[in-house]
Amino acid sequence: MTPCAAVRALTIAAADGRELLTGATLTAHAGQILALAGPSGSGKTTLLKAMIGDLPPGTTRRSGTVEVLGVDVLGCDTGQLRALRRTRVAYVGQDPGSALNPWMRVSKLITEIAPGADAARLLDEVRLAGVLGLLRRRAGELSGGQQRRVALARALARRPDLLLLDEPTAGLDPALRDEIGDLLHHLAAERGITVVLSCHDRELVARLAGDVLELPGTALPRPAHRGPAGHAAEHTPGHTAGHTAATRARTTGLRVRGLAADVGPRRVPVLRGIDLDAPAGDAVAVVGPSGAGKTTLLRALAGLHPFTAGTVTLDGAGLHPDVRGRTREQRRRVQYVPQNPMGALNPSTTVAAALARPLRLHRRCSSAAAPARVAGLLEQVGLGAEHAGRYPRELSGGQRQRVSVARALASEPDVLICDEITSALDGDTALAVMELLARLRRERGVAVVFASHDLPLVGKYADAVVTLGQDAPAPC
């Protein structure tokens, strides 16, 4: 039986000689679901993109072949490759929001490459039928989970033979994750579509995939916290409700009362009467189903989404709804880590430059000390100093997320607002990043507000929980 996709001993190397993917081999037949597993940075995204003939800029194929639906995608001409991508192969990346045209409405996004497609039916298929006015919304009016499902509907519109998905359930609540898993099973079993996906969710992989390719990862230093003297702090696992910040006045930190916010030009109400307290050193989790308004709330706290009513104060001082109306010191003290870092990192700026900018802007260290400080920030989030000279395109999704966290930490904030920062990370790295935040809370009194669908993680690290949406499950 001729395979739908066959990769043989594929090795991809970067311009500096390091191998992004080493000797990868897989075979996927029609109607099969094959999962790619492995730690962040192991090459899962590189392999998926190689299967559509899209190697990262500056990389070379050292060995191996990639054949998809009878086409040598790394050796065919441009016309063949375009025809394959247009009609038979669909790819949905890890940051789907960055690939959606911000000026197009959802209806046009879906039908653009498949004229005549039934957009409403496709939205129903990806569990978006109940979202009010969705077809008329633009990408910026959608939550991260909604963007991911619109991108999937767009991919399904062309009725592909091969569906390539990079972390398709990242940022989705457990119930929706299971529904998307059931949809993928239906596509494979009933329509004969071959599905190759990368996924950090081992439970979903075990339930869904008929075969698993485990990619080995490069050993990276575990995240370490460096104190003011530059010495690595001792790792202390476990819940931190008894942190030293408890000795501070409980009136310090972030306080929200009666916050309301709308989205889009039609001012669709998303948040109404939200109250939230994040005292210095505490962690507050924001939970709820995809589309409940978690990202809108976090962006409003950071001054990136205007709120229509209510107040946000920091240590008793009011914060302007627009970040541009806040003082430089207020902007330094409240830092935001987005769900999709690819859209937030400048593609033409190296990691070192991205981390050095807040150091310079907020006068955290001298120019001479900046390189060492950048290396320390990378070490904090479990990345080696060699990542400093790389561009966002040269990083995996999980590595980009950790760079985004390091950039926020460069300002030495008092409040850190994190939107699903562990959804693109493997389990060990996710726990290590949360332990880093726990140490910052305990030792520096940083308040953390984070959105997450990982309820066990919420139960372990949160001191308080704000639930959005009537049917959101409680953390365990």
Describe the protein's topology.
Layout: E1 5-13, E2 19-28, E3 33-37, H1 44-50, E4 60-68, E5 71-72, H2 78-87, E6 89-92, H3 106-111, H4 119-125, H5 144-156, E7 162-166, H6 174-191, E8 194-198, H7 202-208, E9 211-214, E10 253-263, E11 268-279, E12 283-287, H8 294-301, E13 309-314, E14 317-318, H9 328-333, E15 334-337, H10 351-361, H11 370-380, H12 397-410, E16 415-419, H13 427-444, E17 447-451, H14 455-461, E18 464-467
Parallel strand pairs: 3-8, 3-9, 6-7, 7-8, 12-17, 12-18, 15-16, 16-17
Antiparallel strand pairs: 1-2, 1-4, 4-5, 10-11, 10-13, 13-14
Helix pairs in contact: 4-5, 10-11, 10-12, 11-12
In spatial order, strands of the major sheet run 6-7-8-3-9
State the helicity in percent bands: 25-40%
The number of domains: 2
Portion in beta strands: 15-25%
* General shape: globular
CATH topology of the largest domain: Rossmann fold
* Uncertain residue segments: 219-250, 471-476
For the record, give the distance between the C-alpha atoms at the N and C termini, rounded to a whole number.
46 Å
- Tell how many strands the DSSP assignment holds: 18
- Structural class from helices and strands? alpha/beta
CATH top-level class of the largest domain = Alpha Beta
Number of helices: 14
- Largest sheet: number of strands, sense, barrel closure: 5 strands, parallel
Question: What is the H level of CATH, i.e. the homologous superfamily of the largest domain?
Answer: P-loop containing nucleotide triphosphate hydrolases
Quote the average pLDDT: 86
Spatial extent as radius of gyration: 22 Å
What would CATH call the architecture of the largest domain?
Answer: 3-Layer(aba) Sandwich
